[in-house]
Amino acid sequence: MLLILPIRRWICLPRILGCSLPAAAQMSLPAGQRCQPQGAFPAPEQIGPVVQIFSSSLGAMVSLLAKLRSLLVSAEDHLPEPLKSQKDKLEILRQDLEAINTFLVNLSWVEAPNMMVKHWMNEVRDLSYDIEDYIDNCREEPCSDSEVEELSTLVKQAKDAHERHNRYDLGRWASNPRFVVDGGEQGLVPRLNGDATDLVGISDSKAELIKRLNIDAEQRLVLSIQGPPGVGKTTLAKQVYCEIEGRFECGAFVRASKMPDTRRLLSSIISQIQPRDERPPHGLPVQELIDSLRKHLQQKRYLIVIDGLWETTSWDIVSSAFPDDTHCSRILITTDIEEVALECCDYESDAIFKMETLGGNHSTELFFNRVFGFKHECSKQLKECSEEIIRTCGGLPLAIISIASILAIQPDNLELWRHVKEALFSRLRYNLTSEVKLREIVSLSYNSLPCHLKTCLLYLSMYPEGYTFFKADLVKQWSAEGFIIPGEEKNCDEVAECYFDELTCRGLIQPNHTNISDEVTLYTLHSTVFEVIRSMSIEENFSTVIDYSNTISELSVKIRRLSLRFSSAKYATKPETIKLSPVRSLMFYGLVECLPSIMEFEVLRVLILDVWGDHDQELDLSGIGRLFQLRYMRITSNIIVKLPARVIGLQFLQTMEIYAKVTSVPSDIIHLPRLVHLCVRGEINLSKDIGHMGSLRTFQSFDLSSNSEDNIRQLGEMTDLRDLHVISPTEVSDPLKGKLIAFVSSLEKLGNLKSIIFELAPATSCTSIDLDCSWSISSLSVFLQRLELLPPICIFSRLPVWIGQLRKLCILKIVLRELTTGDVDSIAKLQELTILSLYVRQPTAEQIVFHRAAFPVLKFFKFRCSIMCIAFQPEAMPRLRSLNLEFNAHSGEQNGNMLAGIEHLLNLEEINGRIGAALGAEESDRIVVESVFKDAISKHSRLINFNLRIVGLFDEEWHKKSELDEVAAVVEEVSPSAQHQEAPAPPVSRFPQAQPQPLAQQPLVPPPLGLSAGTSHRSGVTGTRFCNICTAEPQAAAETGMLHRRARHRVPPLPRPVRQDQGAP
């Protein structure tokens, strides 16, 4: 760890290195010399080369110097013509840049540089970007005479910058460095507050708010939570939403922002409430979105949470979409502003819940829990120091967490505690408001970051306030920008994850949602954190954000990262004064007409587009093949995307994600040497020799019908693959059987796979396929964590023996022709299994018993069989939360032993049932089965949610007309792969989408930038909400082969909480 304190004292403890005036020397320590005994700092002349850590304060210096050194090592081999004759100039340039880099490193640690220092730093940062762009361009294309002359200009600018630093003695400012706390090479293990049991001081507020929501009023009720920033309003609203959401037919949790954007709010709610096939087209006017949402909510009991409302304009518009009927609907608002709270509640003060700051005891508990963990002891000196720190935080949970997270890195370092206390006193000695105080504390936390973490955090300023994101997606963008440099023992991915985890541990990035397996899947930033980094980003010219409301007449600086948001302006255009050629990262959200020409972005590295338009339009990206520096591209669109015929020029491309229909995939994509993640929706018809894609780690969606049998066999040559998503055609053919056999052969060669998803391609019809012989797999990767073999393609006669060898398996979804208790015992040996879905085609002859201590960590279980014949022994599935059952009612059948022992599932929170009717069964048979089912469930003493849907036939032999009515909903409800369509929530608001991970429940097709998508929180799965009850007229039901009947017990009154949870806001 690295601790930089004021010059009056250096400290060097284990994993702590004091850094004072010779900061450049300290940064230049070789890895093996970074932890020295006190006083053992090497002299500056003994220091080796600069440590490879990227920092926004250094511009492109790190990568630029590395490139110059590489070019000059063997000029004859590496320098392009005619730069070989300019070697002397390049050497002079390198020497000046080395010196400038040393000055930059020193000045980057200054606590509060003056304007002269800031101007010089900004100037040389820009110069470093310009020079790197020049070097890159010369390496890719032949240099013209004018470009050779440009080199002379760049050399002169570097020489002038070097001389100005010395002339104005800027180095003297480096004598007052800021303090920095670094998690070190190993990073920190974050303590994620994703569980309600970790919260402190919220249980009483939660109980009171639920009580207010539980009044008997049939009219729609609007309540507001109001309080200062950082007091825990979002945490409280989230806990209440998760507690009661299952009592409503539909619900949504969305985040507002200071910049009004009613389109984003409405689209976020729609994405969580309306089924995918019922949602309005992307890009509709606001009024049409309101009409669509209002129509869907008619006659429904709904729960809506709008978090962080700053003004009433959005509320005046959005609220018109919520029917004011008599179905006991509830709307919950959180806001910092009392006037907003009053107006939303029609000025009824009783409808406003005032959120108070934490008391002394709760503040102390939260502080010490964060620093030391739940079992904490500290010295008398630390306790005395902590009292002043806690008092300064003013009972604001975010402030307490921010400071405690700094101290948690070295919890027993008294000197660090004293310095933090003094820093707080110097910043907060005046009588400040809670909002200003919180901002100062967050700024202190930000300033304590080492430079590389600051850079990674600043990147988030490009996104809209209130968005949520996936970890995997963000770290890939960091890597594409060049922020991540591999260490001696870690690759880029591992280093990036360490950076992310440390920012999370410090409370600057916050967990936003956990899935059924208690994994954090979504993250977000607090609004105050976002304000701080946005301000710093503007100050350092790190990124530029322009939306429809901006009126920028001129920009005097070069833009390196640009975010364009035209969600509410149909014909918005960029300011004409912006020069796009220096932009390295572009994020665009809006209509296709507003998108600038991609070819103007000559040095683009990161491209993220969310574009919509009319269905007869297309997004023309045929020119991207000339963006030689492109490393990351993700396109989301509702219109066709036109790609170039060849992309061989994209030699640095690492990630290609296209969530839209494409005209075709470039034929030479297989020759991109650095391509690691390839995700293209629909039929991917790749050219032959796909085995050349040896660097690929993520591949989706590989379509068996569009690829030759030879290609499928070559899939086995991609030995570095981690995540594979395969779709199968819907028509039976002999070639398909041959392709499946080839696919099985390839799977056995992919020894590094962690995730396999095999499912049916979207279709309107399908016939039964018996391909059990094709699935004679002898073994799969021992690293496999997720295996989804979904119907009707992947069907096994019995449980394969090799399933028991997958000891790391966490998610299993499989279709069996028949199942025995012995098969269940074999699956139970998979000790890490958290999600299990079993589809059984034939009724079992015996009762399936889940034995004592079976499935110790299972959280989600789905069982589909024509006859419900399962039983649970005591202590079976001790952690099960969600039980999902699908079966048929049979004529004259006795159901006395249905769900025997369900009372032994002590942690069960919800049961979701779907009852069909077997051939020959009458309505009376179904009513009897439904009654028996309810009676069995009633034996459970603490069940929270019970949801029932009456559907069509669950046939033993998978009659396809009925199956197709069900398959989409089944996949969406059960499969984490379905979250490739919608992100897990609550709460969700999204700009960039994440690349699917083996275990994280993430979407295959992300929703639009800045939008939210939701799920049933308790089930941890997405798609059709379990709490939704389908209703249909009898005639329509007969036409679709489905019969829907509303379950009258579906919406019970809201109960008061049985237990109260404690934990940290």
TrEMBL record:
Domain Disease resistance N-terminal: 60-139
Key words of the record: Coiled coil, Leucine-rich repeat, Nucleotide-binding, Plant defense, Repeat, Signal
Keyword Lipid metabolism tagged: no
Low complexity composition bias: residue spans: 992-1003
Signal peptide per UniProt: 1-18
One Pfam family, short name: WHD_DRP
Spans annotated as Disordered: 975-1017, 1040-1065
InterPro entries named in the record: Apaf_helical, Disease_R_plants, LRR_dom_sf, LRR_R13L4/SHOC2-like, NB-ARC, P-loop_NTPase, Rx_N, WHD_DRP
Domain Disease resistance R13L4/SHOC-2-like LRR: 583-941
GO MF annotation terms: ADP binding
NB-ARC domain boundaries: 204-373
Presence of keyword Isomerase: no
Disease resistance protein winged helix domain span: 462-532
One of the GO BP terms on file: plant-type hypersensitive response
Entry-linked Gene3D superfamilies: 1.20.5.4130, Helical domain of apoptotic protease-activating factors, P-loop containing nucleotide triphosphate hydrolases, Ribonuclease Inhibitor
Family (UniProt): Belongs to the disease resistance NB-LRR family.
Name of the protein described by the UniProt record: AAA+ ATPase domain-containing protein
Organism the protein comes from: Sorghum bicolor (Sorghum)
